[in-house]
Amino acid sequence: MNASSAHLAAASALLLSLTASAAALAQSEPAALVDQHHCMFCHTRDAPFLAPSFQQIAQRYRNVPDAQLVLEQKLRVGGTAHWGDMAMPLPPDRGGPLTPEDAHTLIRWVLSQ
Ligand code: HEC
């Protein structure tokens, strides 16, 4: 290993440990699911983009008691748009079927933002 690749290795080790501790603070991100279903294609964590940000969504539903269930359902079978005029595409158009367990995991994570 030459000096610059040693540097690179040290820098990426540092980055990994920073990322890991940031993730441990929040509800940990179900990264594989998020990737597989392309959530971040339209959403971001904190800035509205093609869709409301996950923080806006968490904020909006903070005091709604059955939000978890309603949103899981919506993520799987769809519903009408009520943020803007574009409804979220259904799972087949996002990356494949979404099981109830996966919907539960994803919504728990979104609502923890
Ligand atoms: C193709 C773009 C797109 C993708 C991909 C996408 N969303 Fe969305 N999402 C939207 C739009 C647009 C809205 C706003 C819909 C509305 O007005 O009700 C939305 C709304 C939501 C809401 C709030 C629904 C409500 O009724 O308030 C949640 C929760 C959500 N998305 C989670 C996710 C998760 C989790 C994923 C990945 C599995 C995902 N989204 C992938 C576009 C997308």
Tell me the count of domains. Answer: 1
CATH topology: Cytochrome Bc1 Complex, Chain D, domain 2
Class based on secondary structure composition and strand pairing: mainly alpha
User: CATH superfamily membership, which one?
Assistant: Cytochrome c-like domain
Series of secondary-structure elements, N-terminal to C-terminal: HHHHHH
N-to-C CA distance: 41 Å
Number of helical segments with 4 or more residues: 6
Helix fraction bin: 55-70%
The level 1 CATH classification is Mainly Alpha
Query: Taking all residues together, what is the mean pLDDT?
Result: 86
The rounded Rg comes to 17 Å
Ligand list: heme C
Report what the structure shows.
The protein has helices at residues 3-25, 31-36, 39-42, 54-61, 67-77, 100-111. It has 113 residues and is mostly helical. It has one domain: Cytochrome c-like domain (Cytochrome Bc1 Complex, Chain D, domain 2), CATH 1.10.760.10. Helix 5 (67-77) packs across helix 6 (100-111). It binds heme C (HEC). Heme C binds at residues 37-39, 41-43, 50-52, 57, 71, 74-75, 81-84, 86-89, 94, 106, 110. Heme C (HEC) binds next to helix 3, helix 5 and helix 6.
Compact overview of the structure:
The chain has 113 residues and is mainly alpha-helical. The protein contains six helices and no strands. Helix content is 57%, strand content 0%.
List the SSEs and their pairings.
Blueprint: H1 3-25, H2 31-36, H3 39-42, H4 54-61, H5 67-77, H6 100-111
Helix pairs in contact: 5-6
Heme C binds next to helix 3, helix 5 and helix 6.
Protein name: Cytochrome c-551
GO molecular function, one term: electron transfer activity
Signal peptide: 1-22
